[in-house]
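job 3f2a | input accepted
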Amino acid sequence: MVKTMKLDAQHPAIKSARPRWSRYALAQEIRDFLEEFDLKPTPFGLAAAKDDKLLWRIENAPNGISLDKADRIRAFMSEFRAKRHRELAIHDTHPRDRE
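job 3f2a | predicted structure (99 res):
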């Protein structure tokens, strides 16, 4: 028989390990995105989630952010990246090549 461990006050490190790791992973994704597109955290937070302190909240707030908000942030980054790549593809094409 496999014994399972209860995730409660007796094992706080186990209980909080996954959410903390997920938050820091998301924060790193955002930092990489900001560097890739030379963006600042405040305008990014406002555009992605209407939250000017988004990155700070992800890294420091006791409860982090909701999964729904994390999904919206990732969707925003994906859409922004795709749009930027399309814009670059259009600009990189020579006018005579468009005919």
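job 3f2a | Confidence is low (pLDDT under 50) at residues 2-17.
job 3f2a | closed
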